[in-house]
Amino acid sequence: MYDDGLVACTGGELVIRRYYFPLASAKRIPYRDVRGLRWMPLTLGTGSWRFWGSGDFVHYFNLDPGRRNKRVALVVDLGRRIKPVITPDEPERLVEELATHGIAVTRGPDQL
Q1: Distances from the Cα of 63 to the Cα of 54, 79, 101, 103, angstroms
Q2: Label partner for 26 (CA 20 to 30 A): which of 65, 87, 88, 96?
Q3: Pairing mode, strands 36-41 and 13-16
Q4: Could you list the residue range(s) of the whole structural domain that residue 27 is in?
Q5: Which residues of the chain register pLDDT less than 50?
Q6: Structurally, how many domains does the chain consist of?
């Protein structure tokens, strides 16, 4: 199991805490609903300073006060327009855990 306080893997779902504004309640996503994840370098242009919410009406970030110190984000594909973006403390460990549930992670050529 993986749990860093903001992102967790349970027996049947991915839990993104502090997701909904303004209540900061959790988003629970059954593994069967996740089509895949995309590894994304976290930069100023891709949301490293995004406190909460969306800047482009496609990618939605949960509340993570430590995001500006992280270098990796994972975009969750649910087959919908809005894609949750998570910034786990240990992205490699989270990816390994999600793989045990059959969820593939796509990386660009510069992130192999």
Answers
A1: 11, 22, 25, 24
A2: 96
A3: unpaired
A4: 2-107
A5: 112
A6: 1
